[in-house]
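Session log. Operator J.P. requested a structure for one protein chain; no other inputs attached. Running the standard single-chain path with token output.
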Amino acid sequence: MEYFFSTQTGGMILKKILIGILIGAILTIAAMAFGDEKPIKILLDGKEVYSDVPPQIIDNRTFVPIRVISEALGVDVKWDSATRSVILTSPENVPIFSVVSYNKVDTEYGYAIFGEVKNRSTKTFSKVEVKADVLDSGGKVVETLSTQLPPGVTSGETAYFRLRSFSGKGNLFYSVKFNFITSDECSVTPTDVVFSNIRFTGDPNTYNDFIYATGEIDRTDKDYTRVYKNPMVQIALFDQDGKMVNYGEKFLSDYDLHRYGEFKITLDNGPAYSTYKLKCFSD
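Structure written below.
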């Protein structure tokens, strides 16, 4: 088996990979003898790492799946079908936040960009600014938009965002280049709450320009002792194709002192939606 490594934009390219990667001193393999019914275990820093694809012993050498080991070590793994290459990026070169998906929606006075991001690092921040360079078909920056993520998006979590434009340049929109600016690192655990009695209503006195999402939020027993500094509830609406078409958010005053709370989130009246998702964050 041959492995070819080369450095490209902070990553390593591995070609001719068959089933895995050989891990050296940093990984301990608790391998049972060949023919033993017990499976091979993968231990990383004393903790077992589970994989859908089991390790194998070939010619007295132990091989483990590349993705599960790399991700356990904080390495980003991507597949490039064009070059048939596996691209590994070391943790220091992986962006703290990355965009999972985004969708542009035309509005009455401009357009909005709705999206979801994931914290790919091991850090958590109280302040995260999203900056978006809107590009035309020629790659030229048409305008730059910005917004804030909620505080306390912990490692591995995803959060929603909305960027608004009233510039009248929506017809020039082609793609977006995102950048994230972080500050005020903090140490918190993810919130653990339950949402209930979610209702959507309109307001005839405002010509149906807005819709309101109201509901209740309740901490679980596991979450009861967690400290909430700036709790925020997010709601994202999705169409029948799973594209995000609307968004709203609400900071919860004094929720840090209570187990139960209520919220009312104002959203612009937008495209038809089929499903919704709620999230809660706090630093």
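Operator note: The helical segments are 66-72.
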